[in-house]
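Database export, one record per block. Field names are fixed; values are copied verbatim from the stored entry.
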Amino acid sequence: MTWEDILKAADTKIGVYYSTLKSEKKNNGTVNQQISFNCVRLTYLMVQNMEDEGTYVYTPVWIFTQHEPDHLEYEYYVYPEEICIIDAVSGEIVQLSQVM
């Protein structure tokens, strides 16, 4: 998918993704109400191979994250406040629970 297509997918799917999270968490404050991603990276993620059970494949993904302004550069000990992963081929949201 092109970058423009990824942005369109993000625009329509990230809101749905976070509204689902809010309902799963029963809106107990664990999901930020205002999400503003300030970092995006293209990388690879190991996901389950749907064609061969028990194996994994690497797939290209766009990772959208929200970091504190002081931690925009990668530091192994700093976790993002928010994260959303979009498959770079299909434009679908990658559920973290399915890859961990």
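Remark 1: The mean pLDDT is 79.
Remark 2: Residues 4 and 10 are 10 Å apart (CA to CA).
End of record.
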